[in-house]
Amino acid sequence: MAAPTAGATEFTAPELPALEIASAEFVDHVRADLASVGITAPPVDAQLTDALDQAIVDVIPQELVSPVESATLEMPDPVATEFTEVASSESAKYETVATDPNYQWRSDPISKMMAAKPTANAVLHRVGGSWFDAPRIPVASQQAQERGVSLYGAGTPIYLGESAMCTLGAVGTDAQGRKVGLTAGHCGQPGDQVSSADSWQVGPTGTVVASNSVYDYSVIEFGSNAELTGNYNNVAVNELGGQVTSGTELCKQGVASGLTCGTTWSADEFVQFSQVCAMTGDSGGPVMAGDRIVGMISGGVLPYQQLSCQTPLQGALFMPTVSTSMDAVVSDMNAQGGVGAGFALAN
């Protein structure tokens, strides 16, 4: 991990909790899926899965070495947008036409099959390497854009700096009334301009003002041309932080793989290990326990992006995901005393 900048408070990297892997459960999950369509698979070889579990645990590092990278993308030009009305309950009222090169509809059989939606008219790709049907631009974002502002909430896809794309974790105000957003620390550096990938035509609406490599979070201060909401694209956040225990089901929203859920393997006051699907572009995305945001996507347990989930056809067969605890992030912001101190969620 990077050393703190000059004048910054010295941090001690948190010790990661012990991680237990149960690949036999993954295999049983796949067997059940196959059985549901009439395919019988051989039973689990306990000796083999136990050896695999131990091999994974043996190579897991004692610090977070594999952030779910911010996507490097072609940035759209800030030109006027043309809209066309679409008749679809899944989509926003308007869809952009020939504007953002990273917003691509695919109707070929392979793309639809890999997204596990073979009968869909088309699927949406927003991050290279992802076969998931990506989240659409919500109506509320389009309406805000028509007012000349960008709307932000948990799960909003964002552009940072020259070419990075990540997902916003949480939004709210600090003790001074400043509008604040939180995302992964490896997504941006202080001074990077931020714009919504759902309404990039508005232009930059925020700036990264702080970044912490130890807890992997960045603080964004939004300007007057940004609005905040506690419910973005059906991701409603009503509570902040709180304990997570082994066995808790967590869900996340990310621009690359959308809404995915999985079981918590272990957690402490700093990080959570779970089988929540996340990949490049999902960095910073909110990790939820019900309507409570408990973390933000940080990375995988191994430094191999090819082991992350890239299609829903994988089921649970991907490396576990690490998320940063919101309690740790909020506590550290309060200790720093700058932008973000006294953070409270947006309504």
TrEMBL record:
<dbReference type="GO" id="GO:0006508">
    <property type="term" value="P:proteolysis"/>
</dbReference>
<protein>
    <recommendedName>
        <fullName>Serine protease</fullName>
    </recommendedName>
</protein>
<dbReference type="InterPro" id="IPR033116">
    <property type="entry name" value="TRYPSIN_SER"/>
</dbReference>
<dbReference type="InterPro" id="IPR043504">
    <property type="entry name" value="Peptidase_S1_PA_chymotrypsin"/>
</dbReference>
<dbReference type="InterPro" id="IPR018114">
    <property type="entry name" value="TRYPSIN_HIS"/>
</dbReference>
<dbReference type="InterPro" id="IPR009003">
    <property type="entry name" value="Peptidase_S1_PA"/>
</dbReference>
<dbReference type="GO" id="GO:0004252">
    <property type="term" value="F:serine-type endopeptidase activity"/>
</dbReference>
